[in-house]
Amino acid sequence: MRMRKRHNLAPRMEKCADLMIPDCTAHRGRWLEGIPGFERLYVELGCGKGRFTADTAAEMPGTLLLAVEKVPDAMIIAMERIRERGLANVRFIDGDAAALPQMLAPGEAARIYINFCDPWPKSRDAKLRLTAPAFLRMYADALPLGGEIHFKNLHKDGAVGVMTDYEAKFYAEGLKINRVVARKTAATLGTAAGAVPRLRNASLNDARGVEESREANKTEENAK
Ligand SMILES: C[S@@+](CC[C@H](N)C(=O)[O-])C[C@H]1O[C@@H](n2cnc3c(N)ncnc32)[C@H](O)[C@@H]1O
Fold first, then answer.
1. pLDDT per residue as tens digits for the range 87-97
2. Residue with the nearest Cα to atom 27 of ligand 1?
3. pTM of the predicted model, to two decimals?
4. Which of 14, 164, 178, 215 is most buried (most C-beta within 10 Å)?
């Protein structure tokens, strides 16, 4: 979906400069030392306009929340929300989630949130989905044992927890929304190559990725 151009983007970004990390590699391996006062680091990929970012950060003042967003016209709204609410525990990276290994040392993020990621329905774009295997491998590296991916997409049983902007919109339309929590275990580590397709099929089998999961299931079945 194309994001509307924001008026005065540059000066508005400038006003929020203290919330941004201009060099995404700057704190790699020492986020909690570089930005002291927090007990753990959580990361949100594709934060969009930041309703979830702001409400989650407000619920967890002891957690540093790093929000990654590649579209500045969306990120500026998120940053202004954080500024208006006076939240001290959020930082933003204006960049691509594909650079996660440059942002985080292995095991550095205790949790990764991915909400309503862009569907990229054409198969030639499948590698751009934040649920694509290469991304899942990056998440497995960035999490410690017990670390979690929290993934929300289109509520089975009504609204649960903090809503995102997209979720509020879909919920108002009466659409079903699913949430998955995937936890890194010793099995994830031991079978890095094999576990990723299993994680994808079992946990990230969202409405938009069904086709991809079917293909992966077929390939796995054929390989048996
Ligand atoms: C459909 S919107 C959802 C926004 C928000 N999570 C929500 O639920 O309201 C997807 C967001 O992810 C961002 N995004 C998609 N791929 C990304 C990537 N590789 N790196 C960073 N942001 C990404 C898009 O720019 C967009 O703002």
1. 999 999 999 99
2. 48
3. 0.84
4. 164
